[in-house]
Every structure is written in structure tokens, then in C-alpha cells.
């Protein structure tokens, strides 16, 4: 899939939460990947979950239908 075919979906301050969301989306048939904005180790980073543009609406639906809360995603 082309780089431009992926859209930012959610962002987190830690990789674990982003990976957890990507796993939830993947289990529901929405491919997802995690991208980091960290340029240098030790500098505060943001982790973005990206999904294919064509499945952005489905990703929103999956998250809205999910029983996971923001605090649960942070815990994961």
C-alpha cells in the first residue's frame, strides 16, 4: 500500500497504547500500523496509529463499538 493511502487515526504519548489500538483494529479486519514522531531517543514522542484511507470510516466504527476506554488503552 502506498504511503499516501494511509491516514492518521489516533495518536498517543506511548507506544504500548498505540500498539494496543492497532491490535484491536487488526482483529476487526482493519489493517493498522504505528508510526513514531520521535527523532532522537529520549525526546518526547507521539505515536500515531494509521489506517488505510479506504477503511478510516470502519476504524471509527470499530473504536466507537469497542468496550475499551481511553484509560484501558493507556493501561494496555
Distance between the termini: 28 Å
Q: Per DSSP, what share of the residues sits in E-state strands of 2 or more residues? A: 15-25%
Q: Could you give the order of strands across the largest sheet?
A: 1-3-2
- Derived from helix and strand composition plus strand pairing, the structural class reads alpha+beta
Question: What is the count of DSSP helices, taking H or I runs of 4+ residues?
Answer: 3
Layout of secondary structure:
Elements (H helix, E strand, L loop, with lengths): L5 E7 L2 H13 L5 E4 L10 E6 L3 H10 L4 H6 L1
Antiparallel strand pairs: 1-3, 2-3
What does this structure look like?
By secondary structure, the protein is α+β, with helices and mostly antiparallel strands. Helices cover 38% and strands 22% of the residues. The chain has helices at residues 15-27, 56-65, 70-75; strands at 6-12, 33-36, 47-52. It has a three-stranded antiparallel beta sheet with strand order 1-3-2, with helices on one face.
